[in-house]
Amino acid sequence: MTNNEMAVKDLGEAAVLLMAGMSLVEIKNIEGIYWFVFDDKNQCQTISDSYWFSNYSVDAKTFRETMNRLKNRIFSVKN
Question: What is the largest CA-CA distance in the chain?
């Protein structure tokens, strides 16, 4: 992981970052925990802070679809 990347393990947070247009670099499995690695750490941190403090709104249907896409990606990288 580079200095400009941010890793999150929360599925909802990862979905919001994707919906905000952040680039998903990779999904890492570290000791059974899946980490979503995004590019542009500063922008991701701003969006993440808004998400955790309930200051970020998204369309519910798109949020659910994005979470399902991430789950599918997890299952596709499982060995």
Answer: 37
CA distance 17 to 24: 9
Whether the CB-CB separation of 36 and 8 falls below 8 Å is answered with: yes
Q: Is the pLDDT of residue 79 over 70?
A: no
Cα dihedral 12, 70, 38, 22 in deg (nearest 10)? -80
CA–CA dist 36, 64 (Å, integer): 17
pTM for the model stands at 0.90
Can you name the residues that pair with 27 across neighbouring β-strands?
Answer: 36
Structural domain spans, the chain: 5-73
- Both tokens assigned to 46: 């701003």
Query: Among 21, 15, 18, 22, which Cα is nearest to 41's?
Result: 22
